[in-house]
Amino acid sequence: MSTTNNLGKSYNFFSLMKFIFPNILMMLILSLYVNVDGIFVSRYVGTTALSAMNIMFPGCLSLEFAIGIMLGTGGSAIVSIKLGEKRLEEARKNFTLIIILGIVVGIIIAIIGTNFTYEIAKLLGASDLQITASIDYGKTLFFFAPFLFLQVMFQTFFVSAGVPMLGLLSTAGGGILNIVLDYYFIVILNLGVFGAALGSGIGYLVPSFVGLIYFGFMKRGELYFQKTKYDKKFVYKSLINGSSEMVTNLALGITTFLFNIYFLKYYMEDGVAAITITMYLEFIFMSVYFGFSMGVSPLISYKYGSKDTDQLKNIFKYSVFFIGISSIILFLISRLFLSNLVVIFAPIGSNVYNLVLEGFPLFSYSFLVVGYNVFASNLFTALSDGKTSALISFSRTLLFLSGAIIILPLFLKGTGLWIAVPIAEVLGLIVSITFILIKKTRYQY
After folding, report:
1. Is 290 part of a structural domain of the chain?
2. Which distant-in-sequence residues (6+ apart) come within 8 Å of 64 by Cβ?
3. How much is the pTM?
4. Total structural domains in the chain?
5. Cα separation of 264 and 113, whole Å?
6. What is the pLDDT of residues 254-307, one digit of tens each?
7. 2 belongs to a structural domain
8. Helices in 337-369 by DSSP H: which ranges?
9. Is residue 5 part of a domain?
10. Residue 3 lies in a domain
């Protein structure tokens, strides 16, 4: 049995991109899960149904992603450091424990969510026009919560195990299956938003089972399932370490809720549909930053654990360079091809179409800075400094963005909503740069 791990290799810029590219592509494919649902629902069910799906996002997908990513990234950073330190048996036991914990928490959320979907939908502000579709969408996704947890966690651990391509292929398989099922359930069987959620849920099964089979039976490389026992210290440290990613995703849910409320106030149901489409498009562009940061994080953890400071410095330098270039490219793409992207969701000339074309150019300025904030948060998670990572996430997503959504419309009305994200990201960048400079001597990146 081979015990080599690709994380231990030396990387230049091009080999680093080759290693991380599967993870970027994997996140792009994952973004299709939500976007494909939105495309089929908006086209074949209607924009009111699309807004109903977005109503459920904070209490359903955002919550599940938040907890899954917290467990996955928080646990992965610790496991990767231990792999770098060659504490292999301890790393395997920790890995097995965090996966079991994810399954248990997923089952608990599934039970609670499916039994209280109506109450959750009303709490999130579903109108009489949206309530039925919101319940159908939310109840189905809650049912598949354990498999969403596994998919999210395995995405990170495939990289920790040095096999990011396996993560890419399994996620691609789930994404393709989701597209096929969306067409069948929504267009052929006319199942509406229930069909969209069912297609997504079944899509989660592919990477979940691939991960269980690879780590449970194939046992290749350094990382695989091993008999374990509850480790209170490890679990606590994982939760603290991954808290920033949890804050980011919970904040996404909270800010989505605020966006829904305020866009409903200024633009009615069409406004909720417009911000839903905007956030779908944002998710596509952001997946590049998320994929890169999640792909490079286990490398940073491993190099830090093995005390390879030269590689740590190089990886940090390469990361900043990549984010700078990709930020400009993504910003230009978002501006040049906006109308082509929006027409996928809404007919040309419709009120929703016009609202997105009017507001998104303001919103898109956030793409120039958000990549640095995502990387900074993941950097400190990878270094097992969860508190700093959480402070960065909390400031940019909860403090600055929530404040911008509430305060800016008082002076700028609807325009204030569209510039809330760019303003919050610029303020967040100041916080990120401050912590990077303060912590540089300590972590030697």
Report:
1. yes
2. 106, 109, 141, 145, 148, 149, 152
3. 0.74
4. 1
5. 25
6. 888 888 889 888 888 788 888 888 988 898 898 899 889 988 988 998 899 889
7. no
8. 338-345, 351-363
9. no
10. no
